[in-house]
């Protein structure tokens, strides 16, 4: 199964999102995905992906919930995923309402993925504490689980409190949408094994498709799952393929094939660095999907 990130960042944020979503599905895309950026600090205390800076494309970003809603209204079969929502930015009641609404209007196609983020400036702007992000993610997942599966709902946590209340809007997917977590550190991978329905892995083309590393991370998840009394086979994997500037279509196609040949058959491709408008995104998608 092959999907694509929606044209959401940089120049592509002005693209015809609805046309891309419907056309990509017609071409055979199995899934469509959003990312989550709030702003790009002028002088970041932490840069992106181990660097000192933040990519210029992150200065412009379509809201991910709006993008998923547009994609939901423009498609019929493609799964609609997030890789990832930065969980601690969002109060759980509002987040659950937005995600549940997307699942309802799409007929049960939501694949919500969460992470803990990395930019202190974004956390400051969101009014969220940067420290203790893992604990905040755990609490948010607890609250979402209650909001999706209980009625009335009640949650008492360290950061958020929900008084006993009726919340009647529930997701089409039962008992709730599958929760995916993006992770690559031991603590994050352990959390995937202990409580997630899926893992969002990541590679970069052309120079960082490391199947051995993916296998090691997956084994870590499986060990954590077994220790928690869970069946590792119940935890699905989607691999995000980040395409570096100047990469060829053939190189991406080889990466997709390599992943599939090694047990990572479900992937989606992020084209933000090689496509700047709807037509170029669709050209890439068509060339990859016909192979």
Give a verbal description of the structure:
This protein has 291 residues and is an alpha/beta fold. It has a single domain, classed as Alpha-Beta Barrel (TIM Barrel). Helix content is 38%, strand content 18%. The protein is built from nine helices and twelve strands. The protein has a ten-stranded parallel sheet with strand order 4-6-9-10-11-12-1-2-3-5. Strand 7 and strand 8 form a beta hairpin. The radius of gyration is 18 Å and the shape is globular. It starts with a strand and ends with a helix.
Describe the biggest sheet? 10 strands, parallel
Give the C-level CATH assignment. Answer: Alpha Beta
Strand percent estimate:
15-25%
CATH-level-2 architecture: Alpha-Beta Barrel
The secondary-structure class comes to alpha/beta
Could you please say which CATH topology applies here? TIM Barrel
Number of DSSP strands?
Answer: 12
Count of separate structural domains: 1
In order across it, which strands form the biggest sheet? Answer: 4-6-9-10-11-12-1-2-3-5
Report the end-to-end length measured between terminal Cα atoms. Answer: 12 Å
Helix percentage? 25-40%
Helix-strand pattern: EHEHEEHEEHHEEEHEHEHEH
Q: Which residues sit in consecutive blocks of at least 5 with pLDDT less than 50?
A: none
Mean of residue pLDDT? 96
Radius of gyration: 18 Å
Question: What is the CATH superfamily label?
Answer: Luciferase-like domain
Determine the number of helices (DSSP H or I, runs of at least 4 residues). Answer: 9
- C-alpha geometry: globular
């Amino acid at each position: 199964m092959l999907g694509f990130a929606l044209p959401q960042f940089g120049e592509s944020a002005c693209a015809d999102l609805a046309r891309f979503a419907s056309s990509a599905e017609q071409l055979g895309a199995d899934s469509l995905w959003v990312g989550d950026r709030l702003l790009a600090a002028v002088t970041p205390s932490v840069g992106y992906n181990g660097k000192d800076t933040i990519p210029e494309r992150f200065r412009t970003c379509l809201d991910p919930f709006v993008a998923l809603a547009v994609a939901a209204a423009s498609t019929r079969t493609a799964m609609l995923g997030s890789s990832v929502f930065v969980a601690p930015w969002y109060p759980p009641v509002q987040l659950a309402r937005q995600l549940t609404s997307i699942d309802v209007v799409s007929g049960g196609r939501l694949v919500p993925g969460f992470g803990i983020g990395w930019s202190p400036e974004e956390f400051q702007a969101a009014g969220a504490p940067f420290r203790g992000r893992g604990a905040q993610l755990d609490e948010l997942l607890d609250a979402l689980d209650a909001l999706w599966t209980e009625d009335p709902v009640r949650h008492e946590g360290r950061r958020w409190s929900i008084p006993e209340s009726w919340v009647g809007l529930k997701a089409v997917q039962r008992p709730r949408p599958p929760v995916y977590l993006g992770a690559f550190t031991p603590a994050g991978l352990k959390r995937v094994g202990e409580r997630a329905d899926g893992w969002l892995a990541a590679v970069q083309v052309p120079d960082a498709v490391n199947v051995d590393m993916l296998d090691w991370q997956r084994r870590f998840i499986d060990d954590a799952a077994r220790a928690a009394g869970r069946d590792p086979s119940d935890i699905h994997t989607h691999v995000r393929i980040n395409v570096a500037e100047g990469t060829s279509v053939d190189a991406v196609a080889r990466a997709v094939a390599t992943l599939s040949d090694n047990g990572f058959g479900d992937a989606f491709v992020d084209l933000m660095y090689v496509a700047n408008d709807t037509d170029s995104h669709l050209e890439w998608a068509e060339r990859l999907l016909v192979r």
